Amino acid sequence: ARGDANDDDDVDMEITFDSGIDRLGEKLKAKHERIKSGKGEATVWEKTLEEKKEKRRLAKEQAAAKRRSQDASQSSDEGGDDDGMGLGAADAAAEDAGFDDPFFNQDADVEAA
User: Fold this and answer.
1) What is the DSSP string of 15-42?
2) 80-to-10, 43, 74, 84, 91 alpha-carbon distances in Å
3) How far is Cα 84 from Cα 68, in angstroms, rounded to an integer?
4) Is the whole-model pTM more than 0.70?
């Protein structure tokens, strides 16, 4: 009975949705220009990325300095004569890399079989 009285007054309702794509484009453009110009405060994520980049750069510099010091000490130890000791250095590097597994030491046994 109650529904019958409202049937005469039915009104269609129209709902519209705004996706916001046009505002999103403007927002991204403004952010890009802010980053490009270097003005404004960096976001937390941008700061984190910069910190990671700086840590990687420092690690690379330290590794390069370590390699240079090792190369300098090896060249002074060798004395300039080349008697095939380069292979020994490669074996030492392999041991330093953590390849102390007996499997890798059995290459000669496998080739003989």
Assistant:
1) ------HHHHHHHHHHHHHHHHHT-SPP
2) 100, 54, 10, 12, 20
3) 22
4) no
